[in-house]
Write a structure and sequence with these properties.
The chain contains 7 helices and 19 strands. The chain is α+β, with helices and mostly antiparallel strands. It has a single domain, classed as ApbE-like domains (T-fold, Roll), CATH 3.10.520. Strand 7 and strand 8 form a beta hairpin. Helix 3 crosses helix 6 and helix 6 packs antiparallel against helix 7. The protein is globular, with a radius of gyration of 19 Å.
Length: 319
C-alpha cells in the first residue's frame, strides 16, 4: 500500500471587486476550503457592501440618526472597524463613507469613470468614530445624523481571517487566503513557510524576479495608492481617505506592507501608515510590528525586524 504525499493547490477568482486567492497544503482539501471561502465572501458582501442597496450596511447608513439593532456578523465587522480606529488614533475611521462618495467612489471601482470632469465638492472631515454609539451586548447601533459607514477595508481583512481559520479547522490543511492584498494564514504551514511576492499590484503576474517574504503564520496586509486611482476635475485621486480632511491621504508612500497576528490588525496598520504619511515611520516603530514601506521614489524602509528583501523568480510565490 502506497501513501500519497499531500501536494499544495490553489484557486483564484474575482470577489469583492478584487481577486481572491486560496492556497491549501493538501490539494484534496481544496474543494472544501473553497466552499468555506465562497460562503464567507457571500456573507460579507451581503452584510458590508456599500455598493448593494440590499446590504445591511446600506440599510444602516439610511437609518443614520436613529438607533437600530444589527446582525451578529455586522456587529463583528463594526467592532473590528472601531478597534482599528482606536488602535490607529483615528487614522483609520469607518465614518469616511460620505467623503469617499464625494470623491466619486460611489460605485464599484470597475464602474468608475476613469476621468470625471465634474467638480469636486468641498471636502469635509469625517464625523469621527467616537460619535458612533454601539452596545456590543444588545448590538444596538446609533450613528450620528448624516454619517455613512465604510467598512470595506476592515471587513475584507476580517473575511480573510475568518475564512482561513474556518477552512483550516474544517480540512486540517494549512490554508492561505488573500483578498486583494489582505492575506491570512491558518493551520500547518507548508515546509519552509508561505512564500509571498510583494508588489504594487497584486493582480499582475510575476514576470520578473522581485521582492518576497516568507510567512510562517499570522497575516500580512498591503495598502497602496497606485492601483485604485481615478481622475476627477483634473486631479488624480486615490481611495485611501484621511478622516481629518475628507481628502485622499497625502502621497508619501507608494505601498506599505505590515505583518501582524491577524489580517485585521495588519490592514489597520498598513492603511494608517498611508494616511499618516511622514509620521508613519515613528508611529509604526511604536507598534513594533514588522513593516516594509516603499516611497514614491522606490526607497524602501524596513521596520520592526522586517527582513532584507529576498527575491522570487518570475511566476513564483503567492501574491
Amino acid at each position: 500500500m502506497t501513501t500519497r504525499t499531500p501536494s499544495p493547490a490553489q484557486v483564484v477568482f474575482p470577489a469583492l471587486g478584487t481577486t481572491a486567492v486560496l492556497l491549501v497544503t493538501d490539494s484534496r482539501d481544496l474543494p472544501t476550503a473553497e466552499e468555506v471561502l465562497r460562503a464567507e465572501l457571500t456573507a460579507v458582501d451581503l452584510t458590508c457592501s456599500r455598493f448593494r442597496p440590499d446590504s445591511e450596511l446600506s440599510r444602516v447608513n439610511l437609518s443614520a440618526g436613529s438607533p437600530r439593532t444589527v446582525s451578529e456578523r455586522f456587529a463583528e465587522a463594526l467592532q473590528a472597524a472601531l478597534r482599528a480606529a482606536r488602535l490607529t488614533g483615528g487614522a483609520v475611521d469607518p465614518t469616511v463613507g460620505r467623503a469617499v462618495i464625494a470623491l466619486g467612489y460611489d460605485r464599484t471601482f470597475a464602474s468608475l469613470r476613469p476621468d470625471d470632469a465634474r467638480p469636486l465638492p468641498v471636502a469635509r472631515p469625517a464625523p469621527g468614530w467616537r460619535r458612533i454609539l454601539f452596545d456590543p451586548g444588545t448590538r444596538r447601533l446609533h450613528l450620528p445624523p448624516h454619517a455613512h459607514l465604510d467598512l470595506g477595508a476592515t471587513a475584507k481583512a476580517l473575511t480573510a481571517d475568518r475564512a482561513a481559520r474556518l477552512a483550516a479547522a474544517v480540512t486540517g490543511s494549512g490554508v492561505l487566503v488573500s483578498l486583494g492584498g489582505d492575506l491570512a494564514t491558518a493551520g500547518p504551514e507548508p515546509e519552509g513557510g508561505w512564500r509571498i511576492a510583494l508588489a504594487d499590484d497584486h493582480t499582475q503576474a510575476v514576470t520578473e524576479p522581485g521582492p518576497a517574504v516568507t510567512v510562517a503564520g499570522g497575516a500580512l496586509a498591503t495598502s497602496g495608492i497606485r492601483v485604485r486611482t481615478w481622475r476627477r476635475a483634473g486631479r488624480t485621486l486615490h481611495h485611501i481617505v484621511d478622516p481629518a480632511t475628507g481628502e485622499p491621504a497625502t502621497s508619501v508612500w507608494r505601498t506599505v506592507t505590515v505583518a501582524a497576528a491577524t489580517c485585521v490588525d495588519a490592514n489597520a496598520a498598513s492603511t494608517a501608515a498611508i494616511v499618516l504619511g511622514d509620521r508613519a515611520v515613528d508611529w509604526l516603530r511604536r507598534t513594533a510590528l514588522p513593516a516594509r514601506l516603499t516611497g514614491l521614489d522606490g526607497t524602501v524602509v524596513r521596520l520592526g525586524g522586517w527582513p532584507p528583501d529576498a527575491h522570487v523568480p518570475a511566476s513564483g510565490g503567492a501574491r
